[in-house]
Amino acid sequence: MPKVVIVSNRLPVKVSFENDTYNLSASEGGLATGLGSVYKQGDNVWIGWPGLEVTDEDHQTDITEKLKELSLQPVFLTQDEITKYYEGFSNDVLWPVFHYYASTYAHYHQSNWECYQTVNQKFCDAVLAVIKPGDTIWIHDYQLMLLPKLIRDVQPDISIGFFLHIPFPSHEMFRLIPWRADLLEGLLGADLIGFHTFDYVRHFISSVTRLLPLQASANVITFGERSIVAEAFPMGIDENKFAQMPLKAAVKKEVEFITDTFHNQKLILSVDRLDYSKGILQRILAFETLLDHHPELIGKVTLYMIVVPSRDQVPQYRELRDHIDKRVGNINGRYRTIDWSPIQYFYRPFPIETLSALYSMADVCLVNPIRDGMNLVSKEYVASRINNDGVLILSEMAGSSKELIDAIIVNPNNVQEIARAIITAINMPLAEQRRRMAQMRSVVAKFNITHWVKLFIDRLTEVKQMQRSMQTRHVSNGTRQSIINRFAKTQKRIIFLDYDGTLVDFKPVVDQAKPDSDLYDLIDHLTADPANEVVIISGRKHENLEEWFGDKPVNMIAEHGAWSKLQGKHWHRLSGLSNSWKQEIYPFIETYVDRTPGTFIEEKTYSLVWHYRKAQSGLGELRAGELMNTLKYIVSDKGLQLLPGNKVVEVKNMEINKGRAALALTEGKDYDFIIALGDDYTDEDIFRSLPESAITIKVGSNVSAAKFYMRNPAEVRDMLWALTEASNVKTE
Ligand code: GDG
Questions:
Q1: Check whether domain 239-447 has CATH 1.10.1040.20, yes or no
Q2: Looking at the domain covering 4-77+117-232, what would its CATH class be?
Q3: Same fold, 239-447 and 582-653
Q4: What's the rounded Cα separation, in Å, for the pair 629 and 250?
Q5: What's the pTM?
Q6: How far, in Å, are 245, 251, 350, 352 from residue 356 at the CA level?
Q7: Nearest to 185 by CA among 97, 119, 120
Q8: What CA–CA distances, in Å, run from 360 to 245, 259, 389?
Q9: Any residues with Cβ below 6 Å from ligand 1, and which?
Q10: Could you report the per-residue pLDDT of 393-440, keeping only the tens digit for each?
Q11: Nearest CA residue ID for atom 23, ligand 1
């Protein structure tokens, strides 16, 4: 039975050591709850660090055994590894860079990077020790970015998913990291890479295509033989748990106590881990601004601020804590009255019951991170509002702001705006609160943690199936041999060969893609067999094909079918076509040439082509999209067709079509072997028009109507050479 292995830096468990014995208790985080339905089943397991250093081997064995009962498996780390891999690299490079704090907080030390590699390898060893072919691995977060590739190198077919819980920054930020390519390659070991928002997906794909020699089509990255999907999976919470908590006696008791303490006051709640990305200082400043400008609120509003200790051995975090202490002290000192303090500040964790009581009764929840991958606190507040009242103020920099659009959305750097949002929130009419909260509650209820887990796992299965179906369609040795056998048995064959991208690789300059001597040799061998009729079918100009293949015994179809030349005859132009439209369209395309350095127009008899291969990466694609949009309307009533190609946009007469041209050559002839190879959008017409018995092969991994696919021109040539050998045997 195949199993699922979850891997994260920390195991969802608290381990404490008392009276020479280890006590374990499960930690109740949202992720642990959501994944509970996965890792507690059958042989499934969750691998990670138990959260403390254990050097004694007997103790390690003891912990391992106890964890096993909980379906958990430890990776033990030394203090040195924790300092370098976790604090030094994960939290001192990846965390600040991914939260846009590169210049203030990132420190790039080679030894920390080396340790990050070593520890990722340690996790890899632990995973490899338990997995079998057919299993699924789901890796979590930025501490383990190298792990997908490390596993893939040993288990090439295994199914691997990766989810990043923090933002993926713009390429401009990400590229600052000295080891950026290794990190991307590490992630690309996965089959499915998940992020909280679509923006992070975009940033990731643009980093991949700019920093690595790889291409992506929409959200699919082609990496060697694998198609890797990057997608947004906004993480949810255990909504039901938060909706049920306020009904519990313990929580009701807490609510009573808090109500007694803060009666007649508007309570503003904030809950965060201590971190510079959470906007804690900005929040205090906004609250101070509020009191400065609205003295009528003195004594009537309280900021209840919970900060959960985190990483406070690290100097930057200690500094932040000191700063918070000081500012809170200042404000409380300035405004405090005998029975009121403006800020109730707690630097410690609270039991979930207290948290729930606060969520369920706070008039306002203020969530204003400077950057936050998702932010679960905002969703927990919403889920706890079972009466549909209360107001959420939410930073536009939190991933959750993409879903909780009925919150009051603020820019966390705009202290004045936050202060104004607090005023709006405390004065918001109940009906308005209910309208907004009901909307947000339905979003949080639907996209809960169970939904998130299911969506991710289902998509991972789909991606794997897609990869496998590509693999079965790949012309492997077996398929190749059966094509050759069929070829050898036949007497009247026609072979359609597209040129660019099929017989030769794409070159930066159009005219550089001239045939080489190996290709000429190959054509000579193919045409030496009288049973073979070879057709070069291309979008190139007929002058081009004539220059290259004019003296070869081949048929030629140029400009996608506008021109054709049968072996030994003259070039013939498709009749009844007009190209007067070119005068009108040319100036449109020319404006794109003027605006986009490195691009040019190629003019053919019945088409105009805008080439952008040498344009700045990204800009060319952007302009191509614009150009397509502009031309879409202009061409529709002119009988023209728009073709997006490999770094080109082409406009041509609709009547011209490679499929029709191919059909014209095959119709009424009794070929017993038809094969067509092509890489382009336009070759799809050939694949579709040929009879069912034809062998159609797409070069490249995009979706295609072809029956099979090959990876590149080298594979194509290899197979054609094999065919010539088969026919040599026959003609001897
Ligand atoms: C990372 C990303 C992303 C807080 N105080 C107490 C307490 N908590 C719980 C909350 C919430 C969790 O901690 C905090 O989650 P966040 O999402 O707000 O933030 P990070 O810890 O930074 O998490 C973040 C997340 O990963 C998931 O992908 O959303 O963007 O940075 O669940 O309830 N729980 C208890 N007492 C407390 O005092 N019991």
A1: no
A2: alpha beta
A3: no
A4: 60
A5: 0.83
A6: 6, 7, 10, 6
A7: 120
A8: 9, 11, 9
A9: 30, 165-166, 235, 271, 273, 306, 308, 349-350, 352, 355, 372-377, 380
A10: 999 999 999 999 999 999 999 999 999 999 999 999 999 999 999 999
A11: 375
